[in-house]
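Subject: Interface between my chains keeps coming out wrong

I've been trying for a while to get a sensible model of this assembly. When I model each chain on its own everything looks fine, but I need the whole thing in one frame so I can look at the contacts. Pasting all components below, labels as-is. Any help appreciated, I'm running out of ideas.
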Amino acid sequence: MKYVDEFRDPVKAKMLLKEINELVEQIDICKTRPLAIMEVCGGHTHSIFRYGLEGMLPKEIELVHGPGCPVCVLPMGRVDDCVALAEMPDTIFTTFGDAMRVPGSKKSLLQAKADGADVRMVYSPLDALDLARKNPDKEVVFFGLGFETTMPSTAFTVLQAKEDGIKNFSLFCNHITIIPTVKAILDSPDMQIDGFLGPGHVSMVIGIEPYEFIADHYKRPLVVAGFEPLDVLHSIWMVLKQIAEGRAEIENQYSRIVPDEGNDEALAAVAEVFELREFFEWRGLGSIDHSGVRMRKEFVDFDAERKFVVPDIKIADPKSCQCGEVLKGVIKPFACKVFGKACTPETPLGALMVSSEGACAAYYQYGDPDRLRELEKGELEKA
Amino acid sequence: MNKPADISVPKQPRKRGKVSIKKVSLAHGGGGKAMRDLIDDVFVSQFDNPYLSPLEDQARFDLNDLAKFGDQLAFTTDSYVVDPLFFPGGDIGKLAICGTVNDLAVGGATPLYLTCSVIIEEGVEIEMLRTIAASMAKEAASAGVKIVTGDTKVVNKGCCDKIFINTAGIGVIRNGYNLGAGNAVPGDVILVNGLLGDHGATILAARGDMALDAPIESDCASLHGLIKTILDICPEIRFIRDATRGGLATVLNEIAQASGVSIEIEEDKTPLRTEVKGFCEILGLDPLYLANEGKIVVVVPAEHAEKVLSAMHGHELGTGAATIGAVGDWDAGRVTMRTVFGGRRIVDMLVGEQLPRIC
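Reply #2:
Try treating it as a single job with all components included. I did that and got this:
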């Protein structure tokens, strides 16, 4: 495929890997412990596993799979709220596909659908608005989910609904924001991250300026990265280069998509519709200040949380889950007590097993990179 | 023993009923005249053959005739509930024949006789049933199988989605064949007969939920001819399976587990249409798990691989055939893929339905 294959060129990958190996030689930290680089975004986690990147990297580099999978960090209580909304009479509950399987305390949306609720998968919030137009006798609730990447499309949809005077459309807003969460991870006492791959699509909206504090205050390099395998390798190379040269800066590898200043129109729509919540609950990480948004009071008619009664009960994460430690890079997924035993993709206990972008689901599905590295080594020895 | 000569062929063909109304009603499943008329007019007239037309409660075969084809009877069943009923490259009727024919053929059987049971939702247009039955008759004729017995039920509106079809099939396996998922040994080679994922992508696109148009057609086809061709030139083939629901990845995992071997495939050798790749990129799907309805996975001893591959290339349903990987002894039950990028990943069984990712 044109404009895709170019970013998957194995020859260029070999050249980059050679340079990555040379940089690792120059970095002192690598002599005592693995250098930890966190990819914040679940999209990167997916690419890393999909293309087997971790197994190609030298063992001195450890990739820590961060909190940037909005489905993964959705707390159980919010899923229960979704189910309650979906089970209201005369309601069509619309959601992105991968939120369907997230377990609530009693059931997932998929199970609610099996029990008779009208839950429909949509590909865009505009599809949900269309459903509202076509079903004037039903309330259509859209489950708004995701970081700054999906926030603008939800905001534009709400603005459209208001302009068209649509009365039977509302948003259950669970949008979250990445910066406070990265800050919470950096402030965590057991944090050990040496550099970051910044989220590409979030940055397309917010630009790169909001990350400056990571370099200024925490002295960690961050490179906003694209999602093709060469993008990821190139960004890792850029992080290593900064560390080798003793720099900590915010750089933009994904400049073909991400303007440094972000997208003004998208940001304006988001600011018009949403305001920060005091705090938001994250699965695995607990409550984080100012990490979620709600709708402004001008949009109360479109706010499912105000229009209807949602249970809004906080449900603690299962005690056995160690998602928080995995998210912060303290342990690897395999080291979790319930990994692959009580917690599997069929019956996920913890957040990270739910979506294919979650670190644990990726390990479960695509394999332990160390083990794959052994296979590689065995083959080299044979040859 | 005397042959019960022509027991199933009555001397005077009975007069067949006709349906005069436009839509199916519950009366058509009631067992009376309306049902008889529907069966006669829509199904028997299309499937017409001496085993079916007397409408006994069972079709009757001469065992000696069957034995001419081989020494083992193969028997299979499958139900078809595809949505939408009509899609580019096929429809539920064609699928109901191909699917069952293929399930027989992959075991080395010559497919011979099929059943046809339909569950129809009240209110369905008779004309649509005719189209589906005609499609079944056409595919059965081209596959050389006869539909010899069947059943018709009508259920209340909402109790099924327009029409569900079940076909069971009987075939006969030629002497000496014992194809099985447990036969693969390290060193064997994995072949497929062409581009993967077309059917799954077509159905998803045809559903219209994704608001995506893709110029893709289902690969829905009866594969017994291709399978006979390769088994004729290479009886040493270890195993053949059609990669239907769950796609290539599922079949490979089944082989790896049943044989206690590892399998590694090469991403850049796995044949995929650019449109299917693009479709999967956009929706966040993995084409290895997309359904096929005209693709087989073949496990062959390495020394015969070239011969089988070129035989596939010589058949119209195998022009895109390729060697995609090999059987190894790394980790029993594991399937891995060497990615286009040079990395390696595990290809596991699919969990649940493949759902699109959101970002």
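Reply #3:
Confirming on my end. The radius of gyration of chain A is 21 Å.
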